[in-house]
Amino acid sequence: MSATITISSSEIRQIFQPRTSSASRFWELAQKANNLAVIIDARWDHILPETRELLKIFAYAVIEPPQGIKEIFVDFLGRFYLAFTLFLIVLKGEKDSLFVYMEAFQRLLNAILRGIEREDIAYEKALSEALEETFAGLETSETMTAEEACERIRAISYKAIE
């Protein structure tokens, strides 16, 4: 049985570009972002391809650094606006709702990126091979520091990209 999931692009825009800074609005957007993250995690393969592409565009727009002078300037203005908004939120005592929204936004972003990773067969294969290699030499290996583990994960990702 195949089911498709339609996600309204206006709801996605609201999550990624909130217009107001009231506490109740942040709580509402956080709830929508969390709900969308759950749907994406559970049903990525059933989401319409056009919607998946839109989600990918949003995710990459968030994580990629700005290119060119115009984008850098727009990014600077956005960060200035965000800093000013954060200042007002702290003054109003509404920082809890903002933190919940930020966590939900990050959860949504991670869900989209996990969905993208699941689509990449080469990445999945490289990850499986690395896990098998790790578990095969588990008894003879030394303890890794957090930095060494991060470096190993990066190397796996770069290998999959190549």
Keywords:
162 residues; mainly alpha; 7 helices; 78% helix; globular
What does this entry look like structurally?
With 162 residues, the protein is mainly α. 78% of the residues lie in helices and 0% in strands. It is built from 7 helices and no strands. The chain has helices spanning 9-16, 23-43, 49-63, 68-92, 95-119, 121-136, 146-161. The longest helix is centred in the middle third of the chain and has 25 residues, at 68-92. The radius of gyration is 19 Å and the shape is globular. It starts with 8 loop residues before the first helix and ends with a helix. The mean pLDDT is 78.
Share of residues in helices = over 70%
Protein structure class: mainly alpha
Shape: globular
Question: Helical stretch count?
Answer: 7
Q: Detail the poorly predicted runs.
A: none
Distance between the termini: 36 Å
SSE pattern: HHHHHHH
How can the largest sheet be summarized?
Answer: none
How many strands appear in the DSSP assignment?
0
Strand content: under 5%
Oligomer: single chain
Mean pLDDT: 78
Tell me the Rg in angstroms.
19 Å
How are the SSEs placed, and which strands pair?
Blueprint: H1 9-16, H2 23-43, H3 49-63, H4 68-92, H5 95-119, H6 121-136, H7 146-161
Can you give me a brief rundown of this structure?
By secondary structure, the protein is mainly alpha-helical. It has seven helices and no strands. The protein starts with 8 loop residues before the first helix and ends with a helix.
